[in-house]
Design a protein that fits this description.
With 200 residues, this protein is α+β, with helices and mostly antiparallel strands. The chain is globular and about 45 Å long.
């Protein structure tokens, strides 16, 4: 009996490690449905007419996330009409970080005039599947047939502090490559930001 329990525990541990690793470049993404700040439920399948999706895990309170808000808005305005809209997801548990509650998400979206969907990962079920660890954390998805495939994972650019000092626009370079039918030169970078808030 002890051996069975030990084997089961080992299987659960291995499963949790696999889940923590999340998606890799080239993986097909499973659909999900989350609540938007307008009260509507949004899923990836709602973007069936797009070429892909710029999925960004972000939040209200994190200084890194705040520093990137205007850039994320501009990225959506630049690439949304070209087939790559931004979809933002708040992965944080509001019991741990009250500033990331759904109601305050609604307020923040109105205050900043977010032109993109800002979804709440209620129950924190989506971010572990992706393997997101930071806010912000980017997953660039490219539509291939009926599938959304991961093409780039990481950070937005090389300078969160000052947009005017950015030298490498990793995310934009990746989207530009997809639009031009070229290979993405830098497929992965290290996400820089606040750790995702989870109740222990």
């Amino acid at each position: 009996m002890k051996r069975i329990i030990a084997i089961f525990a080992l299987m659960m541990f291995a499963s949790s490690i696999l889940m923590a690793q999340g998606y890799k470049i080239g993986d097909k993404v499973s659909d999900f449905k989350l609540k938007n700040v307008d009260g509507k439920m949004i899923s990836l399948s709602d973007y069936k007419n797009s070429k892909g999706v710029i999925l960004i895990f972000t939040c209200n309170h994190c200084p890194f996330a705040k520093a990137y808000e205007d850039r994320i808005i501009n990225i959506h305005k630049k690439y949304g009409n070209l087939g790559f809209p931004v979809v933002a997801i708040n992965p944080n548990n509001p019991e741990v970080q009250p500033e990331d509650s759904y109601d305050l998400m609604v307020s923040r979206a109105k205050e900043k005039g977010f032109p993109f969907a800002y979804l709440f990962d209620e129950g924190q079920k989506v971010y572990p599947v992706f393997g997101a660890t930071k806010t912000p954390h980017v997953f660039l998805l490219n539509k291939k047939g009926n599938d959304m495939v991961v093409e780039y994972i990481g950070t937005i650019d090389d300078n969160y502090k000052d947009a005017s000092m950015v030298k490498e626009k990793y995310l934009e370079n990746a989207v530009d490559a997809l639009l031009a039918g070229r290979l993405i030169a830098m497929k992965e970078t290290k996400a820089v930001g606040c750790g995702i808030k989870v109740k222990r």
